[in-house]
Amino acid sequence: MPTYDYRCDTNGRVLEVSHRMSEQLNTWGELCARAGQEPGDTPAEAPVHRLATGGNIISSTNRGSGTAPLPACATGNCCQGGMCGLN
Q: What is the DSSP letter of 83?
């Protein structure tokens, strides 16, 4: 099953969970239940958003090994707290 990162705008936390591609989690309560975490002080109905995350990159010269170098970030913001310019 694939893993996904979700972010809660209310508390700023990011949790990683596994679920089917056809599923979508919409609230902090759903996310915490799936992740096996206590919701804490954040309301269970607080909205969460699935983050855009990358996958493995396989080049034609290094097919299947998973050790191909990652391409350079086009925006140059990766090391400045963003994910290739996605904030």
A: B
